[in-house]
Design goal:
Elements (H helix, E strand, L loop, with lengths): L2 H7 L3 E4 L17 E4 L2 H6 L5 H6 L13 H20 L3 E6 L6 E7 L5 E6 L11 H10 L3 E8 L5 E2 L5 E4 L6
Parallel strand pairs: 5-6, 6-8
Antiparallel strand pairs: 1-2, 3-4, 4-5, 7-8
Length: about 180
């Protein structure tokens, strides 16, 4: 049995399936799931990394093998857990989008029963740059009116809408 299957059965990780749109003609999307921690708070404690090291991004290289910062991955897992909870109450599905070549990726795709979507990027930052929304703009161009909204979830203190229409929402303000 693969270790991911064991971790899933133990409710330590949860797979986020790849999104395959039924109404658009996006080509070359990967179907492999992306795995998120079921309880990021527990995972934050297990490696024994100090709060200061985690917040600065200076945690020991051998502590947790990964790309990016450990705190960034925990933040994405926390946002995913929250979005999945709210989506479930709205009878929506949560997926992720990644092209086979890795050029385009959107952290979360929330699909309503009518197959219209909200695209969500997660950024461990208080500010959002044009580079941070590039994949959301690409998806908006591909989907047209099937894309209800684009959102970047951040650690910032305020919610606002950028000039390009992308909503910026602090994780603390997420809710149904």
């Amino acid at each position: 049995m693969a270790y991911r299957e064991v971790l899933t059965r133990l409710w330590i990780i949860e797979p986020v399936p790849g999104w395959l749109p039924s109404r658009s003609h996006l080509a070359r999307l990967t179907q492999s799931p992306k795995h998120q921690l079921a309880d990021p708070a527990l995972a934050a404690r297990l490696p024994g990394i100090s709060k200061e090291a985690m917040l600065s991004g200076d945690e020991p290289a051998s502590a947790v093998p990964r790309d990016g910062t450990f705190l960034g991955q925990l933040f994405e897992s926390l946002v995913t857990l929250s979005v999945r909870s709210y989506a479930q109450s709205a009878e929506a599905q949560v997926r992720h989008l990644r092209t086979y070549d890795g050029r385009q990726e959107v952290d979360l795709i929330v699909e309503r029963p009518d197959q219209r979507i909200v695209a969500v990027e997660v950024k461990l930052s208080t500010t959002v740059s044009d580079d941070d929304v590039a994949h959301l703009a690409w998806l908006r161009d591909k989907l047209g009116p099937d894309l209800l909204d684009s959102v970047v979830v951040t650690t910032g203190p305020h919610a606002y809408r950028r000039k390009d229409g992308v909503a910026v929402v602090p994780a603390a303000l997420l809710g149904p």
